[in-house]
Amino acid sequence: MNDKKDKTSKRTIIEWGIIIGVVALLYVTGWHTQVIGTMQRGLLATGLIKPSIPSMEQDFPMASMDFNFADETGRMVSLSDFEGKVVFLNVWATWCPPCIAEMPSINALYNKMKDSDRVSFVLVSMDEDFEKAVQFMERRGFEMPVYHYRSRSRQAYESTVIPTTYVLTKDGRLALEKRGLAKYDTPEFRDFLINLAEN
Fold first, then answer.
1. How distant, in Å, are the alpha carbons of 69, 114, 127 from that of 197?
2. Domain residues for 41?
3. Are 91 and 162 in contact (CB under 8 A)?
4. In what order do the strands lie in the sheet with 174-179?
5. Is the peptide bond before 61 cis (omega within 30 degrees of 0)?
6. Domain CATH number, residue 75
7. pLDDT digit string (tens) for 21-43?
8. Residue 149 half-sphere exposure, CB side, CA atoms within 13 Å?
9. What is the sign, positive or negative, of the torsion defined by CA atoms of 162, 163, 168, 173?
10. Rounded to the nearest 5°, which phi and psi values hold at 56?
11. Which residues pair with 167 in a beta bridge?
C-alpha cells in the first residue's frame, strides 16, 4: 500500500517538475509571450471579444491631439498631423501577450482599409527598444505603420492596460476607447470606421 503511495507521490512530483520546467523554459527563452498570445488569439477567433460600437448619433467628446510619437525614421509625429482623417490608434508592446493576440485581427482590418485616404492606422509601441517592434512587424509580414512612444505624458491616452485602442473622428473627437484585446476585423467595425469617415 505504501509502495503505491510512494510511486504516486513520485509520479506527481515528476509531473509537476516537468510542468514547472516547461514554464521556466518558456519564460527564460521569452517564448511565454508567444504561447500565451497564441492561446488568446484562439479566444479571439470565437468572436466573443469585440469592441462595443457606439451609436453614430452619440455626441463624442473632444480628444486630445497632444500626443507625440516617432516613425521608423525617427521623424516626430503628432496626432494633430492626422486631422481630417479617422484615426485607429492602438497602444501596444511586443512583450504583451494580448497585444500579440489581437495584432493579426488589426492587420486584417488594415489590409481591407489601407487604400482609404480617410482612415489612418497608428500603432504606437511602448517597447523601450523600438527596434523590437519594427522586427516584430517584419517577421510577421505586417505592413502597418508602427510608431514609437515619445510623449512625456499620454494624458487622455494614459491607460493602465495595454493593448488599448482608440478611434478618433476626423474632427478630433474620441469615438471609441477599448481597453484590452478585441477582434477588430469584423464587418460591423469596418462599417463603423467607414461611417465615421463619410459623415
1. 23, 13, 30
2. 1-199
3. yes
4. 76-78, 68-70, 146-149, 119-125, 86-92, 164-168, 174-179
5. no
6. 3.40.30.10
7. 544 554 555 555 555 555 555 55
8. 18
9. negative
10. -70, -20
11. 88, 176
Cell numbers describing residue 136: 516584430
Place of cell 461611417: 195
For 37, 104, 165, 179, the CA distances from 50, given in Å and listed in that order, are: 17, 14, 12, 11
Residue 109, burial from CB neighbour count under 10 angstroms (0-12, 13-18, 19+): buried
Mean pLDDT of the chain: 81
Residue with cell 474632427: 171
How many independent structural domains does the chain possess?
1
**Residues in a beta bridge with 119:** 86
What is the CA 82 to chain-centroid distance, rounded?
20
Work out the burial of residue 145: count CB atoms within 10 Å of its CB; fewer than 13 is exposed, 13-18 middle, 19 or more buried: middle
Residue-wise pLDDT for 106-119, tens only, equals: 999 999 999 989 99
